Amino acid sequence: MRGLAQAVTSGLLIGAVYGLIALGLNIVFGTMRVVNFAQGTLLMAGMFMTYWLWELGGVHPYISPLVTAPLLFGLGFAVQHLFVSPLLARERAREPMSVLLLTLGLALVLENVALLFFSADFKTVTTDVSMQTFKIAGLIVSVPRLVGLGAMVATSLVLYLFFMHTDLGRAVRATGQDREVARLMGINDFRIYGVAYGLSAAMMGIAAAVLVPFFYIHPGVGTSFLLKAFVIVVLGGLGSMPGAALGGLLVGVIEGAVALWVQAAVAQIVLFAVFVAILFVRPAGLLGVERR
Amino acid sequence: MRHGMLRIATVLGLVGLATMWNPAPVGAADEVRIGVVSPMTGPTAKFGQAQKNALTMAADDVNAAGGIKSLGGAKIKLVFGDTRGEADTGVTETERLITREKVHALIGAFQSGVGFPSSAMAERHQVPWLTFGTFDKITERGFKYVFRAHANDTIKARTLIEGLVALGKRASPPIGSAVILAENTEWGKSVSDKQRGFLERAGVKVHFVENYPYAAPDLTSLIVKAKGVKPDLVVADSYLGDALLITRQMHEQELRPVAYAAGGGGHVQPDFLKNMAKLSDGILAATMWDAAVGKAVPWIAKENERHVAKFGAPFTEDSAGYYQAFQIIVDALERAKTTSARELRDAIAATSITDVNHKVMFLPYKALRFDDTGQNPFATAMVVQIQGGKFRLLYPESIAEPDARVVWPYLATTR
Fold first, then answer.
1. Which of A144, A158, B142, B243 could form a disulfide with A214 if both were Cys (CB 3.0 to 4.6 A apart)?
2. In angstroms, rounded to a whole number, what is the distance separating the alpha carbons of residues B186 and A71?
3. CATH code where residue B256 lies
4. Are B187 and B135 in contact (CB under 8 A)?
């Protein structure tokens, strides 16, 4: 029983990190109706930025989002402006396939650029919080992962306030609901897409800051997390912010518990089975809203 | 449009002609061409570079000493084929080296997954192929031209377990039970299966073998499960990223076995030591070569010093293996007195060396011979332990460092 409680606790904590990445994926999907395959690569970019800030400037990973988030926002905005928007302007479809393929291509290009410049060396950062743990009722809680949970909750709150209570946030939501109508209301939809993409990239700066103290850094690192984020987004509901956050926690817990009871490899099977089942039974996801 | 097609056809025709026309002299005895199939670019490029360094040094030595004497002083020319670490590229590069570069023998391909199909291409063209790669099945396909002088996965697993048992006799507490955590690709699955067999044969209870998903974001549950059975020994078969994660999470979850051992892979890479620092202290691992072998075999130490002076780094496990393969070809060329593939193949198959000071013994064994499958049945691996950020060679006793002692339990100094 102690073992299970430990597995669930750990699952919850790593699930929060998954949730953070899924939130980023969801912002782009909610606005553009495009699954951003480059999300994992942006996370990788964020992790390398965080690593170099620590290595060269001695900047603690938890402070680095002050630098990396704006940089990534700029990168995201630029990618959107230079590559995605021209395609979107030509595509009339509601869920543009060519943009999806474009993000996949971008992911491959960025990953290989990283391989070229950073080589395939694995890097780790050992800070004062790395491998720190404390015990509650006999359960071992990893400090850097707990920080991850905190960051996820805080980021969700800030995003909620942004989307509900600011003009720009409302404009993003409006564009997500109906691009044409939003444009008729005087919203510059392409600028909004840029903001959404930039915001989702900036969030990878936060996810990177959380991950770097306890994970390794490698050009291929995004892939492991991206797959999880896809499952979470579908599970929680495409475009649903609370869905992404809760879905992340749920996936973490399922994974942890199944891995303990059966096997880690079986946990992956269960996870993808749930993924497929949700698609059949409730295509909009647990907290998603059916769209026409 | 039609014009365009014509132009394309012309170009294609010219390319075809160019492919047929091949200026390389066939069978000329003034030069022996050895093809090297390695990852020169891509994620594993730095391994390929180390292999190239070792071979360049070895080839320069032979050429400076007057080339292959039985061939009238023929010089050796290395021809490199870049696999990029990909199986399909490995196969096409192997074919290019054979058909276009007319190589007389091949060495390859570092990753077993690349060497497995590439060596089949060499077999089809009947060009001798010296393997670097531990996957057992490379030499278990009834091939005539494929050889492996060094340990395969079975031998490596056997050496690790036998070494642990032998070392355990001199240390306390003893090892009575174990868990094996192995990644779930071909390598992890096959090697963990063999380790389980050897452990059980040695009377060690194996609580479980778990093949966890490669590159998983979190492995806490796996560690918690292992902790639940309180094993004396944890064996991990992991690539680098997973090795880092497992070692850190073992520490976080306070899983501290008497011995923490690794089948090779990520745990023996320099990057692992660099990143894990203190947490790596006391990890035991199977490897096929380590510079510490020079303590027992002086000429190997000298060769390694020259390598350090030339390239600023010692030989690596794989570059040492490539070096050995090269020396086997040189030895066979001297005896074959020809570059004809058939006779060269027979000379390699007839290799029989027991002198530890012969250059083919860079990976030292009791003997270097090939059985009917092309495997050297006398090959062994070594067991090393990380102590103070360095590998100490502990087993087998014949080549162990005289002053090295096993440190038990894992993390003894920081507990």
1. A144
2. 40
3. 3.40.50.2300
4. yes
Say if residue B163 is in the same domain as residue B275.
Answer: yes
Identify whether residues B338 and B309 lie together within a single domain: yes
In this complex, do B225 and A140 lie within 8 Å of one another by their Cβ atoms?
A: no
Q: Tokens 């995003």 map to which residue?
A: A159
Q: Does B215 contact A at CB distance below 8 Å? A: yes
Does one domain contain both B135 and B266? no
Residue B318 has pLDDT above 80, yes or no: yes
| Opening angle at CA B168, ends B163 and B174, nearest 5 | 140
| Residues B77 and B201 placed together within one structural domain of the fold | no
With an 8 Å Cβ cutoff, is B27 touching chain A? no
- Residue B75 CB burial class (10 angstroms; 0-12, 13-18, ≥19): middle
Chain B closest-CA separation from residue A15 CA (Å): 10
Q: What pLDDT score was predicted for residue A291? A: 56
Same-domain pairing of B109 and B206: no
- pLDDT on residue A249: 93
pLDDT at residue B258 greater than cutoff 80: yes
Around B85, how many Cα atoms within 13 Å sit in the side-chain half-sphere? 10
- Look at residue B3 in the predicted model and tell me its pLDDT: 53
Is residue B377 situated within a structural domain? no
CA A10 to chain centre: 19
> Is the interface score ipTM higher than 0.90?
no
